[in-house]
Amino acid sequence: MERARKNDFTQGPVWKAIVRMAVPMMLAQAVNILYNIVDRMYIGHMPGSGSLALTGLGLCMPVISIITAFGSLCGVGGGPLCSIARGRGDLDYAERVMGNALAMLLAIGAALTVLLRVFMEPVLYAMGASEATYPYAAEYARIYILGTVFVMIAHGMNFFINSQGFPRIGMLTVAIGAALNIALDPLFIFALDMGITGAALATVLSQAVSALWAMAFLLSRRSILDLKLKNLRPDWGIIRRILALGATGFVMSVTNGIVQIAYNVQLRVWGGDLYVGAMTIINSVREVSFSASTGMRDGAQPVLGYNYGAGAYGRVKQCIRFVSAFSIAYSALAWVLILLLAEPIVRVFNSEPELVAAAAPAMRVHFSGFIFMSLMMAGQSVFLSLGKSKQAVTFSILRKVVIVTPLIFLLPRIAGWGVMGIFWAEPISDLIGGGASFLTMIFTVYRKLGEDQNVLTSQ
Helix, strand or coil for residue 449? Predict the structure, then answer.
């Protein structure tokens, strides 16, 4: 019983519990962003071929999103189930969830490595590669794909560290790999003259170290949950629950990939490789702008899930109010800064005048509705943390597949908007999708908490 009550989130002020969990995760997110964009920053400043190499790397982002999607499938699916089970005091079930998630990560990672390597060329061309940019994209993807299993374990198993209430360990999972990547990038890219291959190799090696760190902790005595060999044996009931809840993170990452592909294809048609490169920078800035909100979401998840599992619905409502207020305030600040500082932000990645001239106004349009994304983040955070997979998946599909992807193809042809019409797709979807997600969360979850005591078994 003592082990079950460790990191008990039903005690003390709710906001303090969330902040204690969220601050390390925000730092982890900030470091993770450096992890993801440092390659782009170095590659964008490579002598002679910086802009083309940056564009080639941008073409690999949907592949990276697909790999991350499968990591999220297992981590986002299993993490909340562990938190809820811990809140009920059922550690055996939580351990079986964690073991099955690891088995899924290993099997899916091995399969993805083979499939992506075999079909790499047609996949990259389908994602918008041209004859000029394909060599750079293929050079990066060829190495990155070999590290798929490491990427998935580092990403997926970190959810189980955080769900137990160890945000600092989870932060170190990311920070160790990020620091190594930042150190290896200039060594491999410039000192050893390996170019974009060096960037990919630095990333893979760093992810391998992160994966080893995460596994070492979960196998140690410090972990509340024991990672047992017997729990790697498939339990199809648990796997179905992981897949049902993890479908949210999976769909969110896959739809990110779909949107990126749509952007790359349309931008190449309407603006050429220059605007594909501009979109690579914009996506990087978007990752940075989401870092604090994502850290808050991940920090709140164990607190929300634990209290939900324990039946402390009043505390769950306090969590929702705190997370929503933070998301809105932070997004407003990020929104203003991006609109004011678009040009200097672009120059961090590449200072070629043509690229700056294309990317800065496009960035302002793309982020013009960013404040409404806070509503989407708040709604999705609650849906994910409370195990409400159907709602979370629905709104991810609504915003990215039903709204933004069709608009990417339609808006350039409307009223002569051309290439800038492509960038207007995002703010329109932010407004509609974000508002719908938040209002649905308020009326179907927040107001009804405590009314249905069997809500956990109804999902």
Answer: coil
Residues 113-158: tens digit of each pLDDT: 999 999 999 988 888 788 888 888 899 999 999 999 999 999 899 9
What would the two tokens of residue 56 be?
A: 């080639």
What tens digit of pLDDT does each residue of 325-378 get? 888 888 889 889 999 999 999 888 878 888 899 999 999 999 998 888 888 888
- The tally of CA atoms less than 13 A away on the side-chain side of residue 176 is 17
> Could you list the residue range(s) of the whole structural domain that residue 272 is in?
17-449
Lookup result for tokens 């047992």: 228
- Classify residue 2: in a domain, yes or no: no
Which positions ≥6 away from 367 have C-beta within 8 Å? 285, 286, 289, 335, 338, 339, 426, 427
Separation of alpha carbons 380 and 400, rounded Å: 14
Pull the structure tokens for residue 126.
């389908």
Residue 459 lies inside a defined structural domain of this protein: no
**Distance from C-alpha of 196 to C-alpha of 138, rounded to nearest angstrom:** 10
Whether this model's pTM surpasses 0.70: no
